[in-house]
């Protein structure tokens, strides 16, 4: 077996294969990553200089292109040698399929353009609150192959990206959820149709005892909802914009189960501090549909919803400096995710930018009246500045530190009630940071430093 890419996922794959007795060679184009892997006992071989014909498979880290926009050269060599291209989720699926039914854990897969991290964390929290052995991983936290040994009684709650799903054909999810779909990663998938097909892979291999949970509030998801309705699995639609007579929905912050002869209220989400905003109501609807199928009672689920603290980097309050609330929404890597944050606050001093995705800022225009000024960073600063002209004041700052300083200063000097300095980039982070977590951590450090400086300032 060969592993290409030795970041978090690739390292977990290589270690798991070696521990399982496989013969492994691995490579990463980054020298520091290769050195880290070598220190972990992983054999390093330049795969572009090796005959690949004898490989069982080439296992890719999710970030490595295998089709669009251009395949990595090692992937092209492997395809020429007819070597299968797998991802870590495919390896997990094969490991699960090799277990007898009596030893298989429950597998919950969660995908979507937005909300999948929060929903994964929320489902895990609800299960653990009910004293069940639940573990989250995949595209969030621990890699799929870094989770505890598989066993009966476990619940594996997996956030699954389109990158992972497109390289998996063996995984069967006891419950699979597609929250929503909007254009994202299109350069990687070669268009919306391929992106949609990759997401729909989460429902492959389900049987009549399994459940598909699908959002009904956007057109692409509704196409998949219709298609999956013809499959063998049970289906539950979810919505935050319409009453569903045979699904789960949220009406005026009330989480309702519309299945059965009469709709019943499950929880008042206005009383769930970690689930603020309509986007989080969709996450709650999905989490209820998932965990009720797994046998939890309405009360157990409601208790978990009320006690959920929220997710780091997703509309995460970091504290206050005088009247200013600082909110870390670094996970908002696309326009739709940023829109949910901009719709949730007033008097926003908005830090945005990074590596822009297709579509521009047009979808944010309804929420720009909430923005007092935008502070623009990264590669997108010039583009966003031009798009925002005539809609709201903007300043090109370049770096996150400069944007933070300018936004905090302006918010302090303003007479606006309850000002919010919001990091909601609407962009990928890779121009200036390794990932959105690193960007959010940097923002948190800036907030912590500012708060400490104020606390230690002598009183005149």
Describe this structure as you would to a colleague.
The structure is a single chain. With 460 residues, the chain is an alpha/beta fold. It folds into 3 domains: 2-86, NAD(P)-binding Rossmann-like Domain (Rossmann fold), CATH 3.40.50; 89-307, Mur-like, catalytic domain (UDP-N-acetylmuramoyl-L-alanine:D-glutamate ligase); 316-456, Alpha-Beta Complex (Protein-Tyrosine Phosphatase, Chain A). 34% of the residues lie in helices and 20% in strands. The protein has 15 helices and 19 strands. It has helices spanning 8-19, 31-39, 73-80, 88-97, 116-129, 162-165, 186-189, 192-200, 219-228, 278-293, 298-307, 335-342, 381-388, 400-413, 436-456, and strands spanning 2-4, 25-27, 58-60, 85-86, 106-111, 133-138, 154-159, 175-178, 211-215, 234-239, 248-251, 254-257, 264-268, 316-321, 324-328, 348-353, 371-377, 394-398, 420-423. The protein has a 9-stranded mixed beta sheet, with helices on both faces. A hairpin with a 2-residue loop joins strand 11 and strand 12. Helix 5 crosses helix 10 and helix 5 (116-129) crosses helix 11. The protein starts with a strand and ends with a helix.
């Amino acid at each position: 077996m060969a592993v290409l890419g030795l970041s978090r996922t690739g390292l977990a794959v290589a270690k798991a294969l070696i521990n399982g007795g496989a013969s492994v060679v691995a490579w990463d184009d980054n020298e520091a990553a290769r050195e880290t892997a070598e220190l972990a006992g992983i054999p390093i071989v330049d795969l572009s200089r090796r005959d690949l014909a004898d490989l069982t498979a080439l296992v890719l880290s999710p970030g490595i292109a295998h089709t669009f926009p251009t395949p990595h050269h090692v992937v092209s060599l492997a395809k020429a040698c007819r070597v299968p291209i797998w991802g870590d989720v495919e390896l997990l699926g094969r490991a699960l399929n090799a277990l007898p039914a009596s030893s298989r854990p429950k597998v919950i897969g969660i995908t979507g353009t937005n909300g999948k991290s929060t929903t994964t964390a929320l489902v895990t929290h609800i299960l653990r609150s009910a004293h069940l052995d639940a573990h989250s991983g995949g595209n969030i936290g621990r890699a799929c192959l870094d989770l505890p040994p598989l066993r009966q009684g476990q619940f594996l709650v997996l956030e699954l990206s389109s990158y992972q799903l497109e390289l998996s054909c063996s995984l069967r999810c006891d419950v699979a959820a597609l929250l929503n779909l909007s254009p994202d990663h299109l350069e990687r998938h070669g268009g919306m149709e391929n992106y949609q097909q990759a997401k729909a892979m989460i429902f492959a291999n389900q049987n009549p005892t399994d459940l598909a949970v699908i959002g009904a509030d956007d057109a692409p998801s509704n196409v998949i909802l219709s298609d999956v309705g013809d499959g063998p699995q049970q289906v539950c639609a979810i919505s935050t914009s319409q009453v569903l007579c045979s699904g789960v929905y949220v009406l005026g912050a009330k989480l309702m189960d519309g299945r059965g002869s009469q709709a019943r209220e499950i929880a008042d989400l206005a009383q769930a501090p970690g689930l603020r905003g309509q986007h989080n109501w969709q996450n709650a609807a999905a989490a209820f549909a998932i965990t009720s199928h797994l046998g939890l009672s309405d009360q157990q689920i409601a208790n978990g919803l009320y006690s959920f603290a929220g997710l780091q980097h997703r509309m995460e309050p970091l504290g206050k400096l005088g009247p200013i609330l600082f909110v870390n929404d670094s996970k908002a890597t696309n326009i739709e995710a940023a829109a949910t944050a901009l719709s949730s606050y007033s008097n926003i001093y908005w830090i945005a930018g990074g590596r822009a995705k297709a579509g521009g800022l047009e979808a944010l225009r309804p929420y720009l009246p909430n923005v007092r000024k935008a502070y623009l960073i990264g590669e997108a600063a010039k583009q966003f500045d031009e798009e925002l002209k005539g809609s709201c004041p903007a300043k090109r700052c370049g770096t996150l530190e400069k944007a933070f300083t300018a936004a905090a200063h302006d918010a302090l000097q303003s007479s606006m009630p309850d000002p919010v300095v919001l990091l909601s980039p609407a962009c990928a982070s890779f121009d200036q940071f390794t990932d959105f977590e690193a960007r959010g951590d940097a923002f948190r450090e800036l907030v912590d430093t500012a708060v400490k400086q104020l606390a230690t300032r002598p009183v005149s």
